[in-house]
Specification:
Layout: H1 3-30, H2 35-43, H3 47-71, H4 80-95, H5 103-115, H6 118-146, H7 148-152, H8 154-175, H9 177-189, H10 193-207, H11 213-240, H12 247-261, H13 272-282, H14 288-300, H15 303-322
Length: 330
Amino acid sequence: MTTTSTFALKPALSFLGRAGITAFAFWWIFRPVDLNALLQVLFQTDRLWLLASVGAFLFAQSLCIARWKFLAPTHPSITWPFLTRSFLVAAFFNTLLPTTIGGDVIRGYDLIKATGEWRTSLASVLMDRLLGLLGFLTFALAAWMAMPMAREDPVVRTAFLGFCALVVVTFAVLGSRRVLRAMLRPFARIGLGALESHVKQFQESILAYRRKPRKTLSAFAVTLGVQVTVIFMFAAVSKALRLPIPLLFLMLVVPIVIAISQLPISLNGWGIREGATVLFLGRLQIGREEALAFSLVCAVIPVISAVAGAFLFLARRRKKREAPPPPQTE
């Protein structure tokens, strides 16, 4: 088998593996579920609270775009319409397409194409993610300190400490030159010194945000607004389904569930997210059908922006096909 065919086979094997995990997770979750009870929970949804959750989601999306505007490179092409289109197309890839190309790749590609600067463009996308992670940790820590019941629950405690460790390791690797140098040392020994150089330059682009405190702090302030709105969205869904979920508990477990759903082991987090939600809400004695309904509704709401992104992506492809070919030089 040639090297080219091997590289072509890897995405297919990755897709099949993630699809298999997703199918198994759904089988495992739905196996003991009473489907009639699940449908009854869904059909009795309070539509006003559901509408409020959709409104909160759309507002959170607009805040995410505003945060990205603070972090993106300064360039005449980086306008609000440009960022909005790119963000929605990225949502389409993240939510509806079972692909290895994530939405962050799409956003990075759009910025690089518009600005011609790959390091600062990719750094802005990663910094956007890091601030979101830091915002979630801020709210989770506050809930952890204010909720003794959660600290005493071994499942919630283990998951929370694991989430904290993930955040600490992520910031240590990306924020410490010494840690990154130690991690990259083996690559230099096997002849990949160029990779080490590129990664170091990329890290410097991330650390450059320290010299932009106004932009960074403004983006983090927007992040706090995003987290408040996201937590309200989940709380509104719990109200719509008439589930007794304390607000502090949502502040604590929502970041953990979102972090788990980002792991590249299933198709767009499906199955893994539902399993984690059933596990955590079960600690509140909430039934499997109610917990699964809660997870499914929260997962379907983002489809709104994904559908909009799908239309924008198709329009982009059509415009690219209809564009006249570049003039040929003699």
